[in-house]
Amino acid sequence: MGVDMHDFLPLVGVWSEPVKNEVEKGAIRKFAQAIGDDNPLYSNEEAAKKSRYGRLVAPPTFSRTFDYGRIPNLVLPTAGLIHGEQSYVFHRPILAGDVLYASQALVDVKERSGKLGRMIILLFSYKVENEAGDLVQTATSTIIYRPEGGNSHD
Q1: What transmembrane ranges does the database entry give (predicted)?
Q2: What are the strands, taking DSSP E only, across 59-98?
């Protein structure tokens, strides 16, 4: 019957290897433009230099553009996935020129049944650290997998 909860259980608690992400000014500007945020700290270098940060600041959710690496042996299906929830904890701002290391882990798996059938609920944890190993940002994300799919044309 395809993938089920027991396929994910051995991977709970397994972290990806941290991936180096270099924060570029242009990427910050493009991200801010894409989300429609015209805060000058995100796009105007002169304004950012006068701020307490001294350089461009990334919008809070900019870390979603980072490479978090791959969790060994985790293969998510390509169909039937629903993004359920996302939350962040900000420990320090992300600034242009930062070199950060991002990783992720599957931290919990649950199975539920509902009107639409079986659902496997996957909870992921993400962390971003600076070169000194200090936390910059942590996040969690809930992904819902419907093994029977969600196509209404079936």
Answers
A1: none
A2: 81-90
pLDDT in tens, the chain (154 residues): 467 888 899 999 999 999 999 999 999 999 999 999 999 999 999 999 999 999 999 999 999 999 999 999 999 887 888 899 999 999 999 999 999 999 999 999 999 987 878 899 999 999 999 999 999 999 999 999 988 765 544 4
Beta strands, E only, 61-98: 81-90
The tokens for 11 are 């991977």
Answer whether 42's CB lies under 8 Å from 28's CB.
yes
Residue 148 is encoded by which pair of tokens? 């029977």
Question: Which residue segments constitute the domains of the chain, with CATH numbers given?
Answer: 5-23+66-145 (3.10.129.10)
Q: Angle CA(68)–CA(74)–CA(76) in degrees, nearest 5?
A: 95
d(CA 50, CA 71): 41
Q: In the numeric block, which tokens belong to residue 47? A: 């304004």
Cβ-Cβ contacts under 8 Å for 116 (sequence gap 6 or more) = 146, 150
